[in-house]
Specification:
This protein is α/β, with parallel strands linked by helices. 44% of the residues lie in helices and 13% in strands. It has helices at residues 18-24, 33-41, 60-65, 78-90, 100-105, 120-132, 184-188, 197-209, 227-245, 262-270, 285-290, 301-311, 330-341, 358-365, 390-404, 407-420, 432-448, 452-465, 470-490, and strands spanning 2-7, 47-52, 68-72, 94-98, 114-117, 139-141, 167-169, 172-173, 193-194, 216-218, 250-254, 273-281, 314-321, 346-350. Strand 5 (114-117), helix 6 and strand 6 (139-141) form a beta-alpha-beta unit. It binds iron/sulfur cluster.
């Protein structure tokens, strides 16, 4: 049996980093971890091939080879997925679909032959058993939550890792918190399930064996959801890993309460973590109460971010506008917060209601839903009828992007960040690729771009005051260029300087 694992293309979004990837000569941010894990669950004797549309196009020869297509993706990949499925079906190939997009929206995909929904450890085996007996049904749904101790090592050998900027690994699923707009708890539960130390070690070894030497993203929605097991199982493995195979750097997603635990922050940086994404959402306490983000309430969030920066963990932040509690002043408050905190990667979105969340149910009951959520956090759209005047909300949202990604404010923020940030003990090695990216950035942004004045000022200041941070500063400038290009797509009249 020839199985083609198919991953749809990402549109140009905030997280696609398409404009930044050109500087490092990569084609995509991260390989499809879920699909490669599913590939490892298929019968060993089946032939498997991966086509990630973010790396290369799908050829007629691929389709002629395939006897079965397995497709997965996220909501933001919806349009590409639809086109791919139509193409597979017109080539006469059976399509099996699973993953977040299909689990939440299967009713919009009439052409799919079989759906394997929810966690694959539970829904895939019954499908495979029926398929091999020639009696596969259309729907297979996971009931309950999978035992992640049964999750196999992803088949990394299917992916051409040379084309990715980073790669992924998962330690836990689930989150103990219950933010009402988030579908993580609906999908994975509130009791984090963690893999064993041996599983993590085996996954790291597989990455190393397949030639990976770059940064690794722990895709967990909240890596510190189960601190006890993180400290007991994961951190010792990573410490040993650094000794045996390092240096590797890691990034992940956590909740803000990491800032309350200085020992854990230190332990994380010692094993190689250097970046954490945190859903900060809003500096407004009543909006935090509205969305049940209790862990962020009544705190000095700027001081929390500074503590993380001091510890050597760069914070990337998620921000949301469009809560019912938001007052017109929220836009300036968000700008002030982002600027003051020194968060360089600020993902600012409008509140969207994702099926399966409490917010979705609440908005549905109030007849405030319009269409579907796009799954793109930074496209300025929402499927919620806001309580604030729609025009005011749209303009306020655009003002935030226009301000925080303008060269003046972005470079000003970079200086704040560099002043606060203490270099972690494990650092990304300075490879030839990074040096070339720096040269290209200097050419593109230092000579050809309108931001050249700010670029040279940054280069001079960082060389004088924070020389060790120069590679990181250039990397952030490259990312800022991408964020600016994405913001420009949303702002009529373009960005300010
Ligand atoms: S802390 Fe993050 S992952 Fe957990 S429920 Fe809230 S938004 Fe979701």
């Amino acid at each position: 049996m020839n199985v083609l694992m198919l991953y749809p293309e990402f549109p140009e979004t905030f997280w696609s980093l398409k404009h930044a990837l050109r500087f490092v000569r990569k084609r995509a941010v991260i390989p499809p971890l879920g699909l490669l894990t599913v590939a490892a669950m298929l019968p060993q004797q089946w032939n498997k091939r991966l086509v990630d549309l973010n790396i290369r196009s799908l050829s007629n020869a691929d389709l002629a080879w395939a006897e079965l297509v397995m497709i997965s993706g996220m909501v933001v990949q919806r349009e590409s997925a639809k086109a791919l499925i139509a193409r597979c079906k017109s080539a006469g190939v059976t399509v099996v679909a699973g993953g977040p997009l299909f689990t939440s929206e299967y009713e919009y995909f009439d052409l799919v032959d079989h759906f394997v929904l929810g966690e694959a450890e539970l829904s895939l085996p019954p499908f495979l058993a029926d398929w091999q007996q020639g009696k596969a049904q259309r729907f297979y749904r996971a009931r309950g939550f999978a035992d992640v101790h049964t999750t196999p090592v992803p088949l990394w050998e299917l992916a051409d890792l040379r084309y990715y900027a980073c790669t992924g690994i998962q330690f836990s699923r689930g989150c103990p918190f219950d933010c009402d707009f988030c579908n993580v708890t609906a999908m994975f539960g509130r009791r984090p399930r963690t893999k064993t130390a041996a599983q993590v070690r085996a996954e790291l070894e597989a990455l190393h064996r397949n030639g990976w030497r770059g940064s690794i993203f722990f895709v967990d929605d909240n890596l510190i959801g189960n601190k006890r097991e993180l400290k007991r199982d994961l951190l010792p493995v990573l410490a040993q890993w650094q000794k045996d195979r390092g240096p590797y750097t890691f990034n992940t997603q956590v909740s803000i309460n990491l800032a309350d635990d200085p020992q854990l922050m230190t332990a994380m940086t010692e094993v190689g973590f250097d970046t954490v994404f945190i859903g900060i959402e809003t500096p407004d306490n009543s909006s935090l109460a509205e969305c049940s983000k209790s862990q962020n309430r009544n705190r000095n969030l700027v001081a929390d971010v500074q503590r993380l920066h001091n510890a050597g963990l760069q914070v990337q932040g998620g921000f949301i506008v469009g809560f019912d509690s938001d007052q017109p002043g929220i836009f300036q408050r968000q700008i002030d917060f982002i600027q003051k905190s020194g968060i360089m990667t600020a993902m600012v979105g409008r509140l969207q209601a994702i099926p399966g969340t409490r917010l979705y149910d609440r908005m549905k009951e109030a007849h405030r839903l319009v269409g579907s959520a796009t799954g793109d956090n930074v496209d300025g759209t929402s499927n919620i009828i806001p309580s604030m005047d729609a025009q005011e909300l749209r303009q306020g949202y655009q003002t935030i992007l226009k301000t925080i990604y303008s060269p003046r404010q972005y470079y000003r923020r970079l200086r704040i960040f560099l002043k606060e940030y203490h270099a972690p003990p494990v650092r990304t090695p300075l490879t030839l690729g990074r040096v070339l990216a720096g040269i290209l950035a200097t050419w593109r942004l230092g000579f050809l771009s309108k931001e050249r004045f700010y670029y040279w000022k940054m280069l001079l200041w960082t060389s004088l005051h924070r020389p060790r941070h120069l590679p990181l500063a250039i990397q952030l400038v490259i990312c800022g260029y991408h964020y600016r290009r994405i913001s420009e797509l949303l702002i009529p009249g373009g960005m300010t300087q």
